[in-house]
Prior knowledge:
This protein is 30% helix and 23% strand.
Amino acid sequence: MPPGTMSNIVAIVGRPNVGKSTLFNRLIEKRDAIVHETSGVTRDRHYGKSIWNGIEFSVIDTGGYVEGSDDVFEEEIRKQVLLAIEEADVLVFLVDVRDGITEMDKTVAGILRKGSKKAMLVVNKVDNNMQQYEADVFYKLGFGDIYKISSINGSGTGELLDDLVAN
Ligand code: GDP
Ligand code: MG
């Protein structure tokens, strides 16, 4: 499945450790996923296939370069997000409810706002009811609707997928 032949492409973007890879793995779970890593250090990406409500789509997990490292440069994030905007039809902008809005989140938000692609703001690690309320702070980023999910236990992912394939 070379990237050039994919259609209905969803890219998951966001700063390190928000749970992009965990969400990716959940989306392609139990599918005939063909996952491969592209060569190169800063452009490593995972590509997989998923299906929801009978609609097939490809998913890109971005930011593989940060695996096992806290030393992440804003410039690298910027490159990843710009590449994702080019490649994808819809962007899933993932943030972490536990950290609130960080400076790096604001940077990613700014890049996505300037891009011409639809971006859905998804608040991850909403594992309990209290965090459902805490997640509301992300409305401030101005992306309209927000989605509250737990990539670990799967809550909220059905609603996200309904709207994802609708786009
Ligand atoms: P990435 O750097 O954005 O790809 O983030 P990862 O998918 O590697 O996840 C970073 C850490 O967050 C890991 O320890 C995950 O297990 C954890 N994580 C991911 N999703 C959730 C979630 O929904 N709830 C909780 N509590 N932890 C999560
Ligand atoms: Mg990752």
